[in-house]
TrEMBL record:
This is Exopolysaccharide biosynthesis polyprenyl glycosylphosphotransferase. The keyword Transmembrane applies. Pfam families: Bac_transf, CoA_binding_3. Keywords: Membrane, Transferase, Transmembrane, Transmembrane helix. Residues 258-442 form the Bacterial sugar transferase domain. It is found in: Membrane. PANTHER family: COLANIC BIOSYNTHESIS UDP-GLUCOSE LIPID CARRIER TRANSFERASE, UNDECAPRENYL-PHOSPHATE N-ACETYLGALACTOSAMINYL 1-PHOSPHATE TRANSFERASE-RELATED.
């Protein structure tokens, strides 16, 4: 169900529009003046608003992540900047492109600063003054609603006031009636229900209640539903078609952006790091044990196609390398191997895989063939990871799910984060994951062995 506009959102959004329009127009007067400034202001204002509507630039909610705001801002800057540059072509006394680009950078940076300031001010305002809150109730099995219960109680800055919890041990009609009556009597804003605890008939009744009483209704999915949550609607002529996966990296523009990023980043590492590190590692590895410099292993890639994954060899030569995963205090690991595994230096040759187009800098970690075969039938949605190129690092690894798989929970959570990454990809998310990975390497990771 569509979220209702918050109490103050009706004022905040128009205020944001006006502030942003003032910024881009005042700066245009001083940085890129025109003979007919009035019409120029009209045109860039219209372009800004139309671009913002198209990209959902002002669709910012209390639960929106800051990285999503940054991502929207970059897209807004790109389209608006392109319009400004094209507009200069029709001006006989146009400003130099450098000046226009400078104007775009300054204007959008200032807009972003104001936008983020308002976003964080509202979060602090909710904590300090208790304002801009939405009252909510939870309905469902205790185990399923507990995570959201903790979120509401431990994060007051998001602006949700958990008023009451209604537990459902089974399909309890009485609890549902009490919940809906409470919502009406106390004028509750939002209802959160555990969808797995309700029958289709009960869900339909609650939806009808929410629609008829103008209440925001949201459902909490279980683990399996989370793994298939990104539904995309398309229309073939007037016929609606639903796709259960919205793989952003499959879009042509995103493919190009992702590939350019991978090429630039991999070339940078190969030239600045691997060019001098390779001979050093060759000496250290070969002095301690016999065998090649690189450990080459077949791993599962995009569309489940196998490829040769490169690593610096960190083990003695052994027949179980392609079948047995490494574990803590593994006797096969050499002294040099312990160091390069702990610091993740052993993974650096995979930048050659990135350069060749077999891997990406960020993506689901590739598993060896035997592991893929094992979990493909054992873990639900495991093969969804193979819709995109595997990565040197990934979202799951930044959340602590790297290295040895000790329990099924480890691999289930790894798959959950991998699928979330696939369906919510952006270049900014890639950059964030890279920085977190570097931080973990410098700090030291307990699972790096």
């Amino acid at each position: 169900m569509k979220t209702k506009v918050g109490r103050y959102s009706v004022y905040i959004r128009p205020f944001s529009y006006w502030i942003d329009l003032i910024i881009i127009n005042v700066l245009s007067i001083y940085l890129i003046p025109h003979d007919n400034q009035f019409w120029y202001v009209i045109l860039i204002s219209a372009a800004w608003i139309l671009t913002a509507i198209y990209l959902g630039f002002y669709e910012i909610y209390r639960y929106t992540k800051s990285i999503a705001i940054a991502n929207k801002t970059i897209k807004q800057a790109a389209l608006f900047g392109l319009f400004c540059l094209i507009l200069e072509l029709f001006d006989s006394e146009s400003n130099p492109p450098k000046r226009v680009v400078f104007y775009i950078v300054v204007a959008v940076s200032l807009v972003f600063f104001v936008k983020v300031s308002i976003y964080y001010f509202l979060r602090k305002y909710r904590v300090w003054y208790g304002g801009n809150f939405r009252t909510v109730v939870l309905l469902g099995n205790e185990q399923r609603i507990n995570p959201l219960k903790h979120f509401f109680t431990e994060n007051p800055d998001y602006g949700y006031n958990l008023t009451q919890v209604f537990l459902l041990k089974e399909a309890n009609e009485e609890s549902i009636k009490r919940c809906l009556s409470f919502v009406t009597e106390e004028n509750i804003d939002e209802i959160y229900c555990s969808i797995a605890d309700l029958s289709p008939e009960q869900i339909a009744d609650i939806i009808d209640f929410a629609d008829n009483n103008f209440k925001t209704l949201k459902f909490i999915p279980d683990e399996k539903q989370i793994l298939s949550s990104n539904v995309k609607f398309e229309f073939y002529d007037y016929i609606p078609v639903m796709s259960l996966r919205n793989i952003l990296q499959e879009e042509d523009f995103n493919k190009v952006i992702k590939r350019i990023f991978d090429l630039v980043f991999s070339c940078f590492i190969i030239i600045t790091v691997l060019s001098w590190l390779l001979p050093i590692m060759a000496v250290l590895i070969k002095l301690e044990s016999k065998g090649p410099l690189f450990f080459v292993q077949k791993r599962s890639g995009i569309n489940s196609k196998n490829f040769n994954c490169y690593k610096f060899r960190s083990m003695e030569l052994n027949d179980a390398a392609d079948m047995k995963l490494s574990s803590k205090n593994d006797v096969r690991i050499t002294k040099v191997g312990k160091f390069i595994r702990k610091t993740s230096i052993d993974e650096l040759p995979q930048f050659f895989n990135v350069f060749l187009g077999e891997m990406s800098v960020v993506g689901p970690r590739p598993h060896m063939i035997s592991v893929t075969d094992l979990y493909a039938t054992k873990i639900d949605k495991f093969m969804v990871r193979h819709f995109v190129k595997p990565g040197i690092t990934g979202l799951a690894q930044t959340k602590g799910y790297r290295g040895e798989v000790e329990t099924d929970t480890d691999i289930i959570n790894r798959v959950k984060y991998d699928i979330f990454y696939i369906e919510n990809w952006s270049i900014l998310l890639d950059i964030k994951i890279i920085f977190i990975t570097i931080f973990h390497i410098l700090r030291g990771d307990d699972k790096a062995y």
